[in-house]
Amino acid sequence: MPAELACFEQRCHARFPITEVIYNCPSCGGLLEAVYPAPEQSAAELKGLWRNRRTSNAPLEQSGVWRYREFLPFLTDYTQVVTLREGNTPLLDAPRAAWYGGLDRLAFKHQGFNPTGSFKDNGMTCGVAQALRLGMSRVACVSTGNTSASMAAYASAAGLQPLIFLPHGNISFGKLAQALEYGARTLQVDANFDQILALVRQLADRLGIYLLNSINPFRIEGQKTIMLELMDQREWQVPDWVVLPGGNLGNTSAFGKAFREMKEWGLIDRLPRLAVIQAAGAAPFYDLMRSQDHSRLIPVEHPQTLATAIKIGDPVSWPKALYEVTASGGVVETVTEQEIADAKAVIGQCGIGCEPASAATLAGIRKLVASGDMASSADVVAVLTGNTLKDSDYSYQYHTGVLKTANGTQIAPNLGNKPVLVPYDLSRIATFLGT
Ligand SMILES: *Cc1c(COP(=O)(O)O)cnc(C)c1O
Ligand SMILES: [Zn+2]
Which CATH number is associated with domain 91-116+220-399? Predict the structure, then answer.
């Protein structure tokens, strides 16, 4: 049985060839996922093989995604794959952050160390590989964020044309600047996100453009390797919790699938619990988990948070995320803008740093430990999704005490670290420094 695309809806489960250019199930509209037969190798053989590949200089083996290709065997020919050596991100112990969160210990899996500065690279190398194998020459997404930056880099590196569509007047400059630098053709459209997405879907069919939005199932396959690499780094010892921020919920879906497959194929013996943290002003998944009716997610009309990477009102991957969080015995929590900002400063003080969305993890841990949902003795890994340089304005404004939410609420610089103006005078500076 070869790799196939399967409808994620339990009542449908329709199957399609892996090379079909579809983004939703043609029979029921459900989400699609790649499914495979079990790998030929035993769990022990795979672990040994993956460890050995780390000593190789071959590009594919140096990739923290493609090194694990036995778990994402959707290609039949790997010679076309374009890698920027994504993945290979560190697992960093952070005692100070552990203390702040109320834990005995805490480690961060830092995806901000990726080539374009976020975990989107893990998925994008796979999405672009699929575009190449399908013979596409253009790829597109609707996004101003890390997805655009990553897609632009991987498409250009692969000789494909990256096309980015954005709602006019709704631009986040830092990440868009990356996309421009990486050569993306960027089209601003006078319409909202959903309208543009609908239009781009039609355009994609007509012009043979491959869509690399969150819904693309091959991106999810690449993001699974974040958890494979984590387990490899931990010598296959399963943590009690994996904590991550939730926006479109692609990562939640990918992590859940990764752990399920690792368990099914004998690499681990239990699942960690997933804790998904949302910003309070953009928490439709939290609301869904709290409600009695799990059959449909009610979108948040005007999502609000300064953590722009998780400012999502209508997350596409919610059915998968619902399944994975439930299967893992996980939880969903929300955190305030102030809690995110302070947690981010603590992660900075560890010498680690991250972008605002990533800091929701530590803020969420602090809340879950305080409420007793997470034991302080628990073995916890939090995933930092993006690099601290992604949003330097936010950091500067926080530390200088001028950070405000969209509705004008002042964020207190509780851990602020302002630059100080001193006179050009040796003894006064020496006095100031306390020597
Ligand atoms: C995309 C992104 C998220 C949200 O991830 P989802 O898979 O959409 O839930 C969080 N943080 C950063 C930095 C991101 O780029
Ligand atoms: Zn279906």
Answer: 3.40.50.1100
